[in-house]
Write a structure and sequence with these properties.
Layout: E1 10-15, H1 28-41, H2 54-57, H3 61-73, H4 83-93, E2 96-98, H5 100-108, E3 112-118, H6 124-136, E4 141-144, H7 147-154, E5 161-165, H8 166-170, H9 177-187, H10 194-200, E6 219-223, E7 248-252, E8 275-276, E9 297-298, E10 339-344
Parallel strand pairs: 3-4
Antiparallel strand pairs: 1-10, 2-5, 3-5, 6-7, 8-9
Helix pairs in contact: 1-7, 1-9, 5-6
Length: 357
């Protein structure tokens, strides 16, 4: 019997339509940056002795801690290293930020001048958020291959991400300032896409673009009664239901003045009851007092119009300015829909054999 041919399974997966920002360095730039890192980060290496497990294996667990302290005190400085060099390296180490979590926290608090990220494919999902957050905050960032091996040689331990503190960019006499300039110059060769910068500026300038008009007659702000904290859980005075009472609310008048629109009746009989206000100067305010009733003209026919006015003079009257809360926003750029990618299984994947086969 012939074996049944297995059909290839293809799955449709939703993916990001934009190309991910990944400032990867190759070629001569990669070699030059590796040389800079080896030369400068070696000045921050902490020279420590090595304690073999053979000295602690026989000792009881409770006594091993005290034994370790004694061994550290008697530890001999590595040959060829002076005490002054050890002190300088400890001081230079304070200007570095090592580790994924520490660098991410430093970028959020704006304490990082630049950063270098490991470019291995296995570690990309772990450091992708650092590249994006650094680009959004305009922090120079570079992706470098074999960063773990490079840091293991110059620092004595591997590191997936390292960053330089902000004080280095401000102090030109610092030891790591040439390294900062090299990383910054390489980062400028990678332009940041618009969709990366747009995501950081969506919530910015919430209060900008509000039009403030001179006259606020058609809308007024009514202050609510003082309420306790957690207003949505309290009952306002004189009410039996629990309602949310905001601190300030905006109420609009239900009545609309004649300055908002012009009512032009068709019947002559209805024109007797229509009152229309007009003003020659836009700076004059419209008052509803009894003293201004003489200025209001009842129009029954076009012959009764005041002198110097035509039939459509109401269209030329300057209307009162109405307060507007609309924002002066630019048209948002069109966003791309999610892309659909067809994923195929890995034929070289090792499958576990079923029991009893």
């Amino acid at each position: 019997m012939t074996k049944k041919k297995q059909s290839n399974i293809i799955k449709n997966v939703l993916a990001d339509p934009y190309d991910s920002f990944w400032p990867h360095v190759n070629g001569k730039d990669e070699e030059a940056l590796n040389d800079h890192i080896n030369r400068f980060l070696s000045m921050a290496k902490l020279h420590r002795g090595f304690i073999s497990n053979k000295n602690l294996r026989v000792i009881h667990r409770e006594k091993s801690k005290a034994r370790r302290k004694e061994l550290w005190k008697t530890m001999v400085v590595p040959p060829g290293v002076s005490e002054d060099e050890i002190a300088k390296n400890k001081e230079n180490r304070k200007a570095l930020v090592l580790g994924v979590n520490s660098v991410a926290r430093g970028i959020e608090h704006s304490k990082v001048a630049c950063c270098v990220v490991c470019g291995e494919s296995s570690g990309r999902p772990l450091v992708q958020h650092i590249v994006l957050s650094a680009a959004q905050r305009k922090v120079p960032v570079i992706v470098l291959n074999n960063l773990r091996q490079t840091t293991n040689q110059c620092l004595g331990h591997s590191c997936a991400v390292f960053a330089l503190k902000k004080e280095i960019s401000e102090n030109k006499e610092h030891v790591f300032h040439p390294l900062y300039e090299a990383i910054k110059s390489l980062a400028q060769t990678f332009p940041i896409p618009e969709h990366v910068m747009r995501s950081s500026s969506d919530n910015d300038s919430d209060g900008e673009g509000i039009v403030k008009d001179k006259k606020t007659k058609n809308s007024e702000i009514v202050k609510s009664q003082p309420t306790c904290k957690f207003a949505y859980l309290t009952r306002p005075p004189g009410s039996k239901s629990r309602v949310f009472v905001p601190e300030t609310i905006i109420q609009k008048r239900s009545t609309i003045g004649f300055g908002d629109y012009a009512a032009l009746p068709t019947d002559v009989d209805d024109r007797l009851n229509v009152k229309m206000e007009y003003s020659d100067d836009s700076s004059n305010e419209m008052d509803d007092d009894d003293d201004n009733e003489d200025d209001v003209n009842t129009i029954a026919d076009h012959n009764q119009l005041p002198e110097g006015k035509d039939l459509f003079f109401i269209d030329k009257v300057s209307r009162p300015q109405i307060t507007s809360r609309k924002r002066k926003m630019k048209l948002p750029p069109k966003l791309k829909p999610l892309a659909v990618k067809r994923m195929k299984g890995n034929p070289k994947k090792i499958k576990r054999n079923k029991k009893g086969v």
